[in-house]
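Following up on my earlier thread - several people asked me to post the actual chain instead of describing it. Fair enough. Here it is, all 243 residues.
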Amino acid sequence: MSEPVFLKRTIVKQTLWSEHLQEERKLRIYLPPGYNEVLSYPVVYCQDGEEFFNFGRIATLAGQLILEQDVEPFIIVGVEVNVAVRTAEYAPFGSRFKQYLACFAEEIIPFIEHNYPVRRTPEERIVAGDSLGGSVSLHLALAYPGLFSRVLSLSGAYYPETRELLSQEEDLSWLQINMVVGLQERDYKTDTGVYDFVEMNRETQAMLEAKGATVSYREKDGQHLWGFWQKELPESLLYFFSS
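Reply from S.P.:
Thanks for posting it. Predicted structure:
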């Protein structure tokens, strides 16, 4: 017996040319069970797209939430990154940071909205990332509040430069962010130094709340690894999708 059609999932791979980055950028798009072009869907945009699908198992988790927890079907767009230039694109001090933000907001979003029936309000778009991907997701919302008001952050790398930019914001009452960090992330070595991610996330949470943002924040036993983030992804997604 073949499995029912609504259990089948579809992942489409696409490539677009970015004028801002002057290169091609690969996307992988998850279409939910029962996908129908006549309908419209909320959408989750993920940094580190390949990792979210391969190590975060986000397509599998999404299918479970939709089929077992009655979550409204949603589309996922994973934006792939070349690890060699990841910090340059994701960190606010990176040489490709501004170009990457512009590519995301001005090229990737219109491309997806032209080709897929995704909803087009900030409340129906979630931008998600791990580590520096969480940080650049927040920066996207700050730079383009008309596009993004909901951020899913897994152990966000909120370096001093991010917190400095954050301190210049006045009113973040439009922003909704779900943050999780692992308690075993206090001494984590990155390509730019050793950081205490717990302290970094606590300080960022306090800054966001002081400026009126709605923050859902949790600390759990876990390390700065996909094994931890994969376990936390369903709770973070449910925060935005449970009615």
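Helices lie at 49-54, 58-68, 86-90, 97-115, 132-143, 160-167, 197-210, 226-241. That should answer part of your original question.
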